[in-house]
TrEMBL record:
This is YveK family protein. The lineage of its organism: Bacteria, Bacillati, Bacillota, Bacilli, Bacillales. Belongs to the CpsC/CapA family. Residues 3-93 form the Polysaccharide chain length determinant N-terminal domain. It is a multi-pass membrane protein. Residues 227-249 are annotated as: Disordered. Its main location: membrane. Residues 140-194 form the Tyrosine-protein kinase G-rich domain. PANTHER family: FERRIC ENTEROBACTIN TRANSPORT PROTEIN FEPE, TYROSINE-PROTEIN KINASE. The keyword Hydrolase does not apply. It comes from Siminovitchia sediminis. It comes from the Bacteria.
Length: 249
């Protein structure tokens, strides 16, 4: 026997379990807001830009082959910037008290497409420290790359600055709350349909028809105790009024 679920049954299930769905959604939004605003530590970001060329040449004409070689070496420079040779010096100069691995996790190095510009981005709970680390990484790289790869033309295009009112890059509370709302709504609907699927009790005559595949000829109404008492009082009231009138006559 195949069971089909109509749109009306779906809407009826949602209506019946609406309180549960709303409760789960509100709980997800509340937890997300508390975690985003009070639990997760804000992380700030600061970036600096470097321009890396090969050794300076006295030729005024730009050599296309030299530019292509520089572009191919950009990935090598990206690896060198995050190497222990650079990060250990940065850690020592700033007295960060971190391991090279911990400092490496804070730094992201990316190169602009088809250019010799390298972006060094640092994320840290302290915005001022993030700017200091980014600038120090650029300065140490500019100094050490001369001995490492005989490159003496590294220019710092833009220094990292913390700013007066820095804004954390993560967490993003509004985005987290929006995601939690959607996830909570889906979870609530899923739980509602699961409970409805697991509920195999017979409650209405429609359930009897669906299970037995037989037409229902009649149904016995059920009454609450309060309804029975109310009906009993209503039946006795005319009799009492009739007895009272008879006694007066």
């Amino acid at each position: 026997m195949e069971e089909t679920i109509s749109l009306r049954e779906l809407m009826e299930t949602i209506r019946k379990r609406l309180n549960l769905i709303v409760l789960i959604t509100l709980a997800a939004v509340l937890v997300s807001g508390i975690v985003s605003y009070f639990v997760i530590t804000p992380i700030y970001q600061s970036s600096t830009q470097l321009l890396v060329n090969q050794a300076k040449s006295d030729q005024p004409i730009v050599n296309p082959g030299e530019i292509q070689t520089n572009l191919q070496l950009i990935n090598t420079y990206n690896v060198i910037i995050k190497s222990p040779a650079i990060l250990e010096q940065v850690n020592e100069d700033l007295k960060l008290g971190m391991t090279v691995g911990q400092l490496n996790e804070k730094i992201t190095v990316q190169s602009e497409k088809d250019s010799q510009v390298v972006n060094v981005t640092v994320q840290d709970p302290d915005p001022n420290q993030a700017a200091e680390i980014a600038n120090k990484v650029a300065a140490v790289f500019q100094q050490e790359i001369v001995d490492i790869m005989n490159v003496d033309n590294v220019s710092i295009l833009a220094e990292a600055e913390a700013g007066e009112n820095p804004t954390p890059v993560k967490p993003q509370p509004l985005l987290n709350i929006a995601i939690a709302f959607v996830v909570g709504l889906m979870a609530g609907a899923g739980v509602a349909f699961l409970l409805e699927y697991l509920d195999n009790t017979v409650k209405t005559e429609e359930d009897v028809e669906k299970i037995l595949e037989l037409p229902v000829l009649g149904a016995i109404a059920t009454f609450e105790e309060q309804d029975m008492q109310r009906m009993s009082r209503a039946e006795r009231s005319p009799k009492l009024r009739g007895e009272t009138v008879g006694s007066k006559q």
